[in-house]
Amino acid sequence: SYELTQPPSVSVSPGQTASITCSGDELGDKYACWYQQKPGQSPVLVIYQDSKRPSGIPERFSGSNSGNTATLTISGTQAMDEADYYCQAWDFNTHVVFGGGTKVTVL
Amino acid sequence: QVQLQESGPGLVKPSETLSLTCTVSGGSISSYYWSWIRQPAGKGLEWIGRIHTSESTNYNPSLKSRVTMSVDTSQNQFSLKLSSVTAADTAVYYCAREVTETSNWFDHWGQGTLVTVSS
């Protein structure tokens, strides 16, 4: 079955750039999307189709996808960005696949 | 604005069937895929399966033998049944709307409902 791998945690200082990776076999040939989940809340879509931002998502969130790795980048990270982030892709056999999640800590 | 609301028992006994319903408001349920996703406490998201309003379904291969989904377009609702539950099925269960345009993503989620499997 298809799998997506994320680092368990990423730490970033306020105002700096956080990069969260998501790795999967030939992931660049698929589309990836990203969700933000704060404690006790439902996930919120922050990036879809690799790099598109839904309405209402700040410009500091951006995404890319190439080779075996998709990346979510948070530029000028704010304290409010502290959350868990999940990547997701579609695989023909497994259908919807989520990464294991990355906890972003703003120190 | 589309809103989703999960409903169903919060406690299910081992070996019994978990049943949840998701009610969609603020928009039509038609022409979309609708998914169930769960999250055990402190763990990641697991996709359970999806149903289209045409009643086409896709299930997570790891759960397929225990999952049944249905849709009621007249009520703007879709449902999940998970049979033979064990403690490992204890989780927050979310319903979500799936957009499928070249790829897929979930643009609207319910607030989630905690289901505990215990005797």
Q: How would you spell out the order of helices and strands of chain A?
A: EEEEEEEEE
What proportion of the residues of chain B is helical, as a percent range? under 10%
Summarize the biggest pleated sheet of chain B. Answer: 7 strands, mixed
Give, in order, the helices and strands of chain B: EEEEEEEEEEE
- Ends distance of chain B: 39 Å
**Largest sheet: number of strands, sense, barrel closure of chain A:** 6 strands, mixed
The poorly predicted ranges of chain B are none
* End-to-end CA span of chain A: 36 Å
Query: How many strand elements of chain B?
Result: 11
Q: How much is the average pLDDT of chain A?
A: 96
> Which pair of chains has the greatest number of interface residues, and how are they split between the two chains?
A-B, 25 and 26 residues
List how many beta strands of chain A DSSP finds: 9
Strand portion of chain B: over 45%
Summed over residues and divided by their number, the pLDDT of chain B gives a mean of: 95
The quaternary state of the protein chains shown equals: heterodimer
Helix share of residues of chain A? under 10%
Structural class of chain B: mainly beta
Count of individual helical segments of chain A? 0
Residue fraction in strands of chain A: over 45%
Shape of chain B: globular
Written overview of the protein:
The complex is a heterodimer of chains A (107) and B (119). Chain A has 107 residues and is mostly beta strands. Chain A is globular. In chain A, 0% of the residues lie in helices and 47% in strands. In chain A, strands 1, 3, 4, 7, 8 and 9 form a six-stranded mixed β-sheet that branches. Chain A has a three-stranded antiparallel β-sheet with strand order 2-6-5, with no helix packed on it. Chain B is mainly beta and 119 residues long. In chain B, 0% of the residues lie in helices and 56% in strands. Chain B has no helices and eleven strands. In chain B, the strands form two sheets. In chain B, strands 2, 4, 5, 6, 9, 10 and 11 form a seven-stranded mixed β-sheet that branches. In chain B, strands 1-3-8-7 form a four-stranded antiparallel β-sheet, with no helix packed on it. In chain B, a hairpin with a 4-residue loop joins strand 7 and strand 8. The N and C termini of chain B lie far apart (39 Å). The chains are: A mainly beta (107), B mainly beta (119). At the A-B interface, strand 7 and strand 8 of A face strand 5, strand 9 and strand 10 of B.
